[in-house]
Amino acid sequence: MQIFGLDIGGSGIKGAPVDLDRGDLAQERFKVLTPHPATPDGVADGVKEVVEHYGWTGPVGLTFPGVVTGGSTIRTAANVDKSWIDTDARALFSARLGGLPVTVVNDADAAGVAEMHFGAGRDRRGTVILLTFGTGIGSALFVDGALVPNTELGHLELHGHDAEKKASSKAKEDEELTWEHWAHRVHKYLAHVEMLFSPELFIIGGGVSRKSHKFLHYIEGIKAEIVPAQLQNNAGIVGAAMHAAEKDG
Ligand code: BGC
Question: What CDD domains has UniProt attached to this entry (predicted)?
Answer without folding.
Answer: ASKHA_NBD_ROK_PPGK (cd24058)
